[in-house]
Amino acid sequence: RTAASVMGARHELAENSSPEANMAKALDLFAAMPAVVAYDQRRRRGQDLIEPRDDLGYSANFLWMTFGEEAVAEVVEAFNVSMILYAEHSFNASTFTGRVIMSTLSDLHSAVTGAIGALKGPLHGGANEAVMHTFDEIGIRPEESLEEAAVRAKAWMEDALAQKKKVMGFGHRVYKHGDSRVPTMKAALDKMIAHFGRPELLGLYNGLESAMDEAKGIKPNLDYPAGPTYHLMGFDTNMFTPLFVASRITGWTAHFMEQLNANSLIRPLSAYNGPDERHVP
Fold first, then answer.
1. Can you name the CATH fold of 127-233?
2. pLDDT tens digits, the chain, 281 residues: what are they?
3. Pick the CATH number of 2-125+238-261 from 1.25.40.390, 3.20.20.140, 3.20.20.70, 1.10.580.10
4. Rounded Cα distance, 80 and 152, in Å
5. Is 124 a catalytic residue?
6. Side-chain-side CA neighbours of residue 46 (13 Å)
7. Calpha distance 209→224 (Å, rounded)
8. Catalytic residue at 223?
């Protein structure tokens, strides 16, 4: 969020909001954000910056800058799938936040900065991080079989639902009968589980999913398979939402430029529901 703001303050077209300038800003953000996210993880680990390479594509370069080694084709493909699925998703909280900012005729970087702030919350972009916190709470045991992990996960979910806990990664305000993006992301997760030899993660995934379905009939959303996929790739959990940002830059900036094309100030009305007028003695 801070990096997006700084890039806006330093951009050579900072005061220019023409369609051409905004397209240039959008492309610059899309190009720069992988380096920002990769460096953030490395600095948290006390590691040095890794320079990008000209011979790698977007996803392969992202992984190179993060981990300092070339990822195998299977990992690059799974990561690329996640980036595509996260790129745009209609009028969600962060997109709406950014469009409100843009409607005031603020600049594109300010709208992106505000959208990142909205995405940070666990009810929106932070849900993929919350999924891994759930896995951690249950306990990830690499020596465990798929079946053993599934039994423990199902028991955890049943207990959580009995206590009326909110479990992230399930349900969606738009998809009432299952997120249409999940099958594609789940297929990528399955490939990563097979590649890294981690069946216990699939056990946790299946146990939670089946228990939620049996108890509530609620299906997973995209964050549910994305979280463990990023975990297997080696990303720290607190990097999952920034990964979302790196992808969603494309959808956000498209919305913001559309907003300006036929702009009117977004100013929702509110209905006051409180005490009647009171007079002070």
1. Cytochrome p450-Terp; domain 2 (1.10.230)
2. 999 999 999 999 999 999 999 999 999 999 999 999 999 999 999 999 999 999 999 999 999 999 999 999 999 999 999 999 999 999 999 999 999 999 999 999 999 999 999 999 888 888 999 999 999 999 999 999 999 999 999 999 999 999 999 899 998 888 888 899 999 999 999 999 999 999 999 999 999 999 999 999 999 999 999 999 999 999 999 999 999 999 999 999 999 999 999 999 999 999 999 999 999 99
3. 1.10.580.10
4. 31
5. yes
6. 0
7. 9
8. yes
Six token digits for residue 86:
């996260």
CB 276 within 8 A of CB 60: no
Given the residues 28, 107, 179, 223, select the one marked as catalytic: 223
Q: How far is CA 228 from each of CA 24, 126, 207, rounded to the nearest angstrom?
A: 34, 14, 14
Which one is catalytic: 11, 109, 172, 255? 172
The single-letter code of the amino acid at 39 is: Y
Cα(64)–Cα(51) distance, rounded to whole angstroms? 9
Q: Looking at 124, 133, 213, 236, which residue is catalytic?
A: 124
